[in-house]
Specification:
193 residues; alpha+beta; 5-stranded antiparallel β-sheet
Length: 193
């Protein structure tokens, strides 16, 4: 999954749509860049990022949008669940990992940061503040077990995760509406399963 930079006209349009009177000084077409990332679990919505390069450090805001209406990613799951209702949410065994990586990147949980690890060994070297790694929505973990429970409509995923800075194996369940629950199963010691 690759980010695509918006042209100047689309950037101006996005800035106009997302800025309120209080944010009018945060973004200007001359010092800002807008880009978009297509998400495999939505038909008509994508992830948009608006970045102000004139501030130090640079400042970015993320939105889910159909190109007309923008929903700010505020750290809760509310904008995601709202878009799941509106946007033709496609949760399948093929899209669930991308959705979970996306969800854990943008939703701040009471139990702390959760990152799906590519492997248990990655726990020893991962940097929680590495935005590129956190935004690797297409990352496929090993080991990984995905099962669809037809009777409940849940998709259950068993994967290695970093759970509040501790390597764990977890059972993650996703409802058809996109609600996520995480149940740590066991601690992974020394980065090994």
């Amino acid at each position: 999954m690759d980010w695509h930079r918006l042209d100047r006209d689309k950037t101006v349009s996005m800035i106009t749509r997302v800025k309120s009177a209080g944010e009018s000084i945060l973004f200007s077409p001359a010092t800002s860049e807008a880009k978009v990332l297509r998400l495999p679990f939505y038909d008509s919505f994508s992830l948009y990022r608006l970045t102000n390069f004139s501030s130090l450090p640079t400042f970015s805001m993320d939105f889910l949008s159909d190109g007309e209406t923008y929903y700010y990613m505020d750290g809760s799951d509310a904008p995601i669940l709202r878009i799941n209702q509106l946007a033709g949410f496609k949760l399948t065994e093929e899209t669930v990992l991308a959705y979970l990586n996306f969800y854990f990147c943008f939703v701040r949980l009471p139990e702390g940061e959760i990152i799906i690890l590519k492997s248990p060994e990655e726990a020893a070297i991962i940097d929680l503040y590495d935005d590129e790694r956190r935004e690797e929505f297409g990352a496929i973990p090993t080991p990984c077990k995905i099962e669809e429970a037809k009777e409940t409509g849940l998709i259950n995923v068993t994967v290695p995760i970093l759970y509040d800075s501790s390597p764990m194996e977890a059972l993650i369940s996703v409802t058809r509406e996109g609600k996520v629950t995480t149940q740590p199963k066991r601690m992974l010691t020394m980065g090994r399963a």
